[in-house]
Design a protein that fits this description.
- The chain is an alpha/beta fold.
- The chain has a single domain, classed as Rossmann fold (3-Layer(aba) Sandwich), CATH 3.40.50.
- Helices cover 31% and strands 29% of the residues.
- Strand 6, helix 5 and strand 7 form a beta-alpha-beta unit.
- The radius of gyration is 16 Å and the shape is globular.
């Protein structure tokens, strides 16, 4: 699989949207990647999860960790292809936490996965959570990196698609400055 074929998959399933979006990070953008337009297709999702798993197979993780909601599907898929456990963290009042009996044992090798990276905020929260629980991070796998590879997580990062999509603080957003209303999609409950 290569970037061009992965971008074509996103385009073919209608996952790349154009408008004026408020992102989960609080930033604004004229382009939004609606990962659930992709994740509704299990066979396509499996193909992408396998590519992430293949990239990290040699690091032999014990557990794959994602964040609710999109990260659950990706974590499960990657975990299946690596024949390992898959768990997820959920948003609580002060960040991400393991619930539902999930845990990481001290010294367990962890692969963190996520769907779309803009600022990396959720991944940095997952990194902190894994470290607090004593996990050893082997790498980070993502479907889409909106930053164009500009974020350094401090661990090996593999993304299936790297797009350099600008995002702006609301007060510097070109569309806000032109009084263009926000498009209804574009933000999770973070």
């Amino acid at each position: 699989m290569n970037y061009k074929s992965n971008i074509k998959i996103l385009e073919d399933c209608g996952a790349i949207l154009h408008g004026h979006f408020l992102l989960t990070s609080g930033r604004h953008s004229d382009t939004y990647v609606e990962k659930f337009k992709l994740l509704q297709y299990p066979l396509l999702t499996d193909k992408l999860c396998k590519a992430i798993a293949d990239n990290f197979e040699e690091s032999k993780p014990h557990v794959v960790v994602g964040a609710a909601t999109g990260g659950i599907i990706i974590s499960h898929g990657v975990g299946r292809f690596l024949s390992t456990r898959s768990i997820f963290a959920e948003r609580v009042e002060k960040g991400l936490a393991f619930r539902r009996g999930f845990s990481i044992k001290k010294g367990e090798r962890v692969l963190i996965v996520d769907d779309v990276v803009t600022t990396g905020g959720s991944i940095f929260e997952l990194i902190d959570l894994v470290v607090v629980h004593g996990g050893v991070i082997m790498g980070i796998g993502t479907l889409i990196d909106r930053s164009g590879g500009k974020i350094d997580f401090g661990f090996p990062h593999f993304s299936l698609v790297s797009l350099d999509i600008p995002s702006y603080e609301p007060e510097k957003c070109p569309q806000c400055l032109q009084n263009i209303p926000l498009t209804s999609r574009g933000r999770t409950g973070k």
